[in-house]
Amino acid sequence: MPMNYRAHISSDPKVMLGKPCVTGTRVTVDAILEDLATGQPESELLASYPRLTREGIHAALAYVANH
To answer: Nearest 5°: CA angle at 46, between 40 and 47?
Structure first.
């Protein structure tokens, strides 16, 4: 079953100019995708962004898949 990203991804004009972010962070979906595209493993993303979770990474991927 596909992940429901809506609980983990939000867009607020007051946060990162309204770009979709992992809820409760300033980590944008774009930043996650760029890092993954360069081959950065999830473990490094989690270390780079302490408030990011695996669920947040997977939600970002689900968000992109649905848009």
So the answer is: 90
Q: CB count, 10 Å around CB of 51? A: 11
| pTM of full prediction above 0.85 | yes
Q: Are 33 and 65 in contact (CB under 8 A)?
A: no
State mean pLDDT over 29-57: 96
Residue 28: DSSP 8-state: B
Element (H, E) at 57: helix 54-66
Whole-Å CA distances, 9 to 27, 39: 10, 22
